Amino acid sequence: MGLKKLKHEDLVAKHVELHGGTKKEAEEAIVNTFSTVESLMAAGVSEGVRVPIKNFGIFTAKMSKERTQNNHLAGGVITIPSMPTISFKKSKSLKV
Description:
Order of helices and strands: HHEEEEE
Helix content: 25-40%
Strand order of the largest sheet: 1-2-5
CATH superfamily of the largest domain: IHF-like DNA-binding proteins
CATH class of the largest domain: Few Secondary Structures
Number of domains: 2
Shape: elongated
InterPro entries: Hist_DNA-bd, IHF-like_DNA-bd_dom_sf
Distance between the termini: 17 Å
Number of strands: 5
Structural class: alpha+beta
Protein name: DNA-binding protein HU
GO molecular function: DNA binding; structural constituent of chromatin
Number of helices: 2
CATH topology of the largest domain: HU Protein, Chain A
C-alpha cells in the first residue's frame, strides 16, 4: 500500500472545492500562508520560535546542540556543529 503523492495543483483544486473562489486566489492564499510560516521560522530559529496553526499542528524552529560522534572509517571522534532544525507536531485532529 503506497502513499499518494499530492501535487501543488491538487492542493489548489481542493482549496477551491472547499472554500470557493478562483484557482489564482487559492494559490495566492496557500503560497502566502506558507511563506509567512517560513519567514517566521527563519527569523526566530535562534530563539526557538513556535508557529501554531489551528487544527493542523505546531512548527518549532530551534538550533540543535553541538555534539560529538564516532567516525568509524577514520577511527576518531568528530564534532557535529550546531545547526538550525525545524520540527512539526501534528494536532489532535490529524491523529489517526
